[in-house]
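Data card: per-record layout.
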Amino acid sequence: MSIDIIRTGDRWYVQKSETTGTLVDTDAATTAELLGAHDAIAAAVAGADAALPGTPLQSPVTAPCRVVAQMTNFVSHITDSGMNPDVVPMTFFRKTSHSISGPVDDIVKPDHVRFLDYEVEVGLVIGEPVPVGTTITQATIASHVAALVITNDVSARDLQLPKTQFFEAKSYPTFTPTGPRLVVLEAGDWNHFEQLRLTLSVNGETRQDAVVGKDMLYKPLEALRGLARFQPLSTGDLVLTGTPGGTALVAPPKPIEIIGALLPPAVKWKAFFKAQAKNPKYLADGDVVEVAVRTDDGALDLGRQRSTVRHSRKP
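The structure for this 315-residue chain is written out next.
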């Protein structure tokens, strides 16, 4: 059975109910150090319950760390993006760990960003390091993935698309809300991964709802094998596994896309974002974004995020 760990006040707790848990007796300041504190975690699991502190939850994944993400990895999202899932390759991009924020922190839109989007994702937290050239098998993946977390890959679409790169558009502070729980996997827990359901709502309206096994294209085993060819991963690093359809951004109808391809880039993007300005699904000031990831039977439950969108203002 998985172990749920939360972080608050820079202390770690094994969570046993919504309001109770046990302090992990450790000086670990980072996720990597915590994952090495096996005896302390085991003692907390066996320890007496107590009321959890009322202080706000922090991200259970600490920075600095590597944040690597899979692009267009759910069939529904690939379709929404106007692509053919039969020919989409496995693709990765990086985010800064400075973008990591807590599960109840505000999502802050920089003043120069117009179109802010959301993407619920399952995060893999690396346990045993993955040097380049590591052979990962179904039998060993559980040692390399120590835990799972909820993540929200917040994206500035008006920066991402014209620049044809992801790093800046997805790396601003608060653009990777993470947690609440670090769900440490025990024997057999990995078998439930494909039953995880990802949901995201904005102001109570469901925008994303998909089950991993029915929609994810490149599963974690294949993804980690691909990364191991070129990207070392260390304990505590975070790998985002893609988002389902339902984001604010969707591809335009094919006839419009064909016409757009004939236009000069500046003209094309001006027209595209003029049309996007009429799309009410981009995140507005005061919107409440709720994200949950769990299996329908509750065998794995990564908890629930609740973030409020705030638009920054120039002084």
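Known properties of this structure: The chain is about 20% helix and 30% strand. The two ends are 50 Å apart (CA to CA).

See the next section for split statistics.
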